[in-house]
Amino acid sequence: MLAELLKRYWGYDHFRPSQPEIINAVLEGRDTFAMLPTGGGKSICYQLPALANEGLCLVISPLIALMQDQVTQLQQKGIEAAYLHSGMSQRQIRSVLERAADNSYKLLYIAPERIRTESFLQFAGCFTANLIAVDEAHCISQWGHDFRPAYRKIDVLKEMFPGVPTLALTASATREVQQDIINQLRLKNPHIVLQSVVRSNLFYHVRYTENKPADTVKAFQDTKGSGILYCRSRRRCAESALLLQSNNITAGVYHAGMPKAERDLVQKKWTGSDHMIISATTAFGMGIDKPDVRMVVHYDAPEHPEAYYQEAGRAGRDGADACAVLFYNITDINRLRESASVNFPPEKFIKQVYSSICDYLQLPLGSGDQELRIFDSITFARNFNLEILKTLSAIKLLEQEGLWIWNENTATRTSIQFTTDRNTLEHLAKYEPSLAYVTTNLLRLYGSIFHHPTYINEYEDSKMMRIDKAELDIRLSRLAALGVISYQPAINGGTLFFQHNRVQPGHLSLDTRRINRLRKAFEQRAAEMIAFMENRDKCRNIALAAYFGEKVTQECGKCDVCLKHKQEQDRHSYRDEVRALIRQRKIIALQDISGNFPRIPMSTIIDYIRTLSDERFCSIAPSGVITLIQKDRQT
């Protein structure tokens, strides 16, 4: 049955490694912890069991964009799925929860912050849950690289759904983080699946350079196929794409500061191309399954090995050879050494950012709880003349304190649900024909719009209705004001969802002990990243595996360290053979030596002969004849 479901909904003939083991474990009702590498097919491990069993799979996921992508893909496959997050109206949330309680969905994606809300708790008791899947499970660990405090509270689901198995999934976690995940989620005698972090087809190259632009161009010129160039800043993304384009390399730009329509277009072009390069910030790639990426290049050093492993791992998902190149210089090393002070600014600065944001959003004291506000973090920092990177870190730390949920790129879609009856629509046709024209077309285009919130494409719909998109927005707003529809316009850009009422800075209490623990863990990971870059002796696969607690002894043979070792071995080998040839022949022409070593450049052979001459092993005449020195003849 499982193979049949896999073929029917995903079109695959075979499971990927470890998928059957994980799926069978949860179907047997066992709590399971699984660490699969990027591109290992984690989502099928809970989506397929959700279809195989009666009831609903609850999926805990931290990113709105990822939830939306997953739900859209499932719906396109004919699988009923929905999500809940802070960017939705209360009416939309209630409608989804009502349908979930009626057993209308197979999968419900939910942000961890929604689990303890009154609305969720009200309906959850009616859910027929068959599985609790915790995606990006490393977010639960304070020793992990992307700690989310709300993850610490999702163990309440164990009490709400006793006997329902929990599946924790992550792509990267050290041994310490793995155990913390198991403890925090209260997994009972879990079945543990740890797929090796080693990718036999992915080869890592770490290069020190003082000319990143030129070396980046050369890297993509030397490797055919599509690729990703990761940069730390939006400006560098744009500049790097222009640099590649000027060298006849097809390249596009992707970052959170671009309009959603532009991002979607670039992503679509890149996904469908077999040679395009996309220059992007590090958030790009999550949930995007493009198997034929041949190269991932990091223009800037990531902050920790987990980030590097996940981002580099987006290359070579099709199993064919791929390469991950990391360029660094002394600036990267110094930045990593100083990064803790940027990522964990002083308490006074954090409180200053808090007050400034509340002022910026015109939030009065004592208000704000459960409010969603549009928020552009970069514009805010510039308006208040605050250092951007420290400001972004302060916003994230305040999020970890549970004060708000920050989404740098919410990118929600417009959704509508009719909240009136047919009689009202007939009345509308008589007195507001321009509005009735919109409602009539919406009903024709979206059959489900009367029953539950439905996503619409206002750009395409406005063309079909032959009215401007701006005019359609106005009419939808009027319909919402009249109570005819529930209307949630698309949000493109950043948002803050407040989880408290604004307080005076003096009344803002921060858990400084927890922040200090996070800082120490961060400093350790940054030091590990520096050590990984500066490593010149250990195979990159072996070094990465050791970081994640896996013992690997087999060298990959193709990373920069292995190739360097091979070159050294080859050099020593040919030198021994050159020395033996001169000793055997006693007198030999330089051309004859070169003829015996066709793969060694003549210049390299000449340099070595000069070294032997300096060592008084042989002499070299202007004519190019090499003569073994008499002393060596006698030995």
Question: How would you describe the overall organization of this protein?
Answer:
This protein is an alpha/beta fold and 635 residues long. It has 5 domains: 2-194, Rossmann fold, CATH 3.40.50.300; 202-328 and 522-547, 3-Layer(aba) Sandwich (Rossmann fold); 336-411 and 494-510, Orthogonal Bundle (Arc Repressor Mutant, subunit A), CATH 1.10.10.10; 415-488; 568-633, Winged helix-like DNA-binding domain superfamily/Winged helix DNA-binding domain (Arc Repressor Mutant, subunit A). The protein is 46% helix and 15% strand. The protein contains 26 helices and 22 strands. The strands form 5 sheets. The chain has a 7-stranded parallel β-sheet, with helices on both faces. Strands 8-13-12-9-11-10 form a 6-stranded parallel β-sheet, with helices on both faces. Strand 12 (293-298), helix 12 and strand 13 (322-328) form a beta-alpha-beta unit. The mean pLDDT is 89.
